[in-house]
Write a structure and sequence with these properties.
This protein is an all-alpha fold. Helices cover about 90% and strands about 0% of the residues. It is rod-shaped and about 170 Å long. It is found in: Nucleus. Its main location: nucleus. One of its GO terms (cellular component) is nucleus. It comes from Arundo donax. It holds the Pfam family bZIP_1.
Amino acid sequence: MASSSGSGSSGSLSAATAAIAAMAGTEEELRALMEQRRAKRMLSNRESARRSRMRKQRHLDELTAQAAQLRRENAHVATALGLTTQGLLAVDAENAVLRTQAAELAARLHSLNDILACMNTNAAATAAATTTSDPFLAFEGATAFDDLLRSCPEMFPLC
């Protein structure tokens, strides 16, 4: 019986050894599977990082192009502003000249109105003076201009 119990015990040892061997095979497979997953994850992370760098570079390129476009637009707007400012200065100068001319013309108009008023006053005085014996006013060759010069001594002091 000793031999049978020895053989039973020997059988259980070989079963345990077989279980350990099977477990070791499973453990090695598990390690290989974990290593395979880790390698796959590392590859996936590398690819993700590469895509991220590409997106970042593409975004940087777009921002650089946008900055260049905005600089061009800014230069265009600055040029347009300069031209508009020059036009404004030219219009302001022209307006100043026109205001001066308008003031001069208004003064001339006022002066001419004064002359007309004197002429009207002179015509009335001439009509009244024809009955008098004033040699200057009674002179038949006197023109309206001569009458004007004679009738407004405050405007024409040399006459």
